[in-house]
Amino acid sequence: MAETTPPLTLSPFLRRTRTRIRNISAVRSIRSMDERHHPTRVVVCGGGVIGVCTAYFLSKSGAAVTLVEKSSVACAASGKAGGFLALDWCDGGPLSSLAHASFNLHRSLAEELDGARSYGYRPLTTLSLTVAESKTPPSSGSGPSGGSTLPPWVDGPARSPRPIGTPETTAQVHPQLFTRALISKAVESYGVEVVIGRVEGVGVSEQGRVESVVLEGGRVIESDAVVLALGPWCGKFELLSSRFRVYGLKAHSIVLEPKEPEAITPHALFLSYYPSHGGKPIDPEVYPRPTGEVYVCGMSAVAEVPDDPEQIVGNPELIQVLKRVASNVSSHLREGEALVKAEQACFLPCTDDDVPIIGEVPGIKGCYVATGHSCWGILNGPATGAAMAELVLDGRATIVDLTRFSPARFVGRERE
Q1: Which of 134, 189, 263, 384 is most buried by a 10 A CB count?
Q2: Which residues are registered as beta bridge partners of 62?
Q3: How many angstroms separate the CA atoms of 157 and 114, rounded?
Q4: Is the pLDDT of residue 21 over 80?
């Protein structure tokens, strides 16, 4: 039986956040006429989920925002990720407060932007299970060995099912639709300007303060602040790469369209998958979407990030593994029963200490960075964007304590 979406109600945390935003707006409204006519000019570099969320919350708070993206909004990982959201999976680590705040902001944004309809936001049940690959894919009607815990469409050789998330603690969005819905709202309602171009550098005054952003071809965009949200491409930006390392983890995925999408219930699957040839298990993930698609991902490894996100292609052998995974999980996902809509790969931005880098770049006033979210970028985009907006406009973030994420932690061990 399909899960139903619980009513989206504001938590006490979000009510306090909204009250604070209203209070901040009230304070800004009594600033001088001169200040009101000259809002803070911020250039956000990067059109992925982190950059778009930052642009959204900055512009909603009154800043004049220009978003610069080399290719197109959500063209890389933010368009090819799974879109899985978890409230408490980061508990006990440095991401805990960020994840909690962001999970709740996702729910609030879904209310505001009609996320259930516009970008596939929905709570869902999440299961862990073991699948031993069979050389003969399941036939329609063959039952799973896991009993009634498994949804009927999971009819392959699955066993040991275990609930690891409920509709109160796990949810999903279609990441590309989410990111583009947010930038559309920011453009239409808050005046964000989107510029397609390659960022060549950041102009800094003799006093060490940001003055502008310089694009390929010579265009200069004057600014009071810049936010570098370039994902794994931060590692190719000299201003940042000289201070810390950001590298790319190449992850593969396929998108399937079953002939009977109504049979696929909202259950996210995290697998321990044992290949038929033996060896160590792999850990692919399966996310049905309310659009009728089923997203299957996994098979990741560190790789060189290309200059152009449009140049990223998947490894055919790894794509074939994901197709075998799908066909062994469900007869609805095997060849002939499902159309392969996409075979793709993307790069997840990672740091050496596995902690995102969010904050002002030491030594350059008004220059900020937000990157390194690895596989949790879609989840943590909203809270990162909201915190960055507070940091840029108010000098400190209150929605999340950013101390642990500060790029200042790398000072004293700059890269050569």
Answers
A1: 384
A2: none
A3: 38
A4: no
Which residues neighbour 117 within 8 Å (Cβ) at sequence distance 6 or greater? none
For residues 145 and 200, what is the distance between their CA atoms, to the nearest angstrom? 56
Please name the residues in contact with 288: beta carbons below 8 A apart, sequence gap of 6 or more: 264, 265, 266, 267, 268, 294, 295
**pLDDT at position 38, please?**
58
The pair of three-digit structure tokens given for residue 39, joined into one six-digit string? 């809002």
Could you tell me the two tokens for 101? Answer: 């705040």
Give φ, ψ of 18 to 5 degrees: -65, -40
Q: With helix as H, strand as E and coil as C, how does 267-296 read?
A: EEEEEEEECCCCCCCECCEEEECCCCCEEE
The count of other CB atoms within 10 Å of the CB of residue 201 is 14
pLDDT of 31 above 50: no
The Cα 253–Cα 292 span in angstroms is 16
Tokens encoding 416:
């050569």
d(CA 299, CA 25): 46
Sign of the CA dihedral with 37 first, then 40, 44, and 47 last: negative
Number of residues in the chain: 416
Q: Report the chain's C-alpha Rg in angstroms.
A: 22
Distance CA 121, CA 123 (A): 7
Nearest to 49 by CA among 17, 88, 75: 75
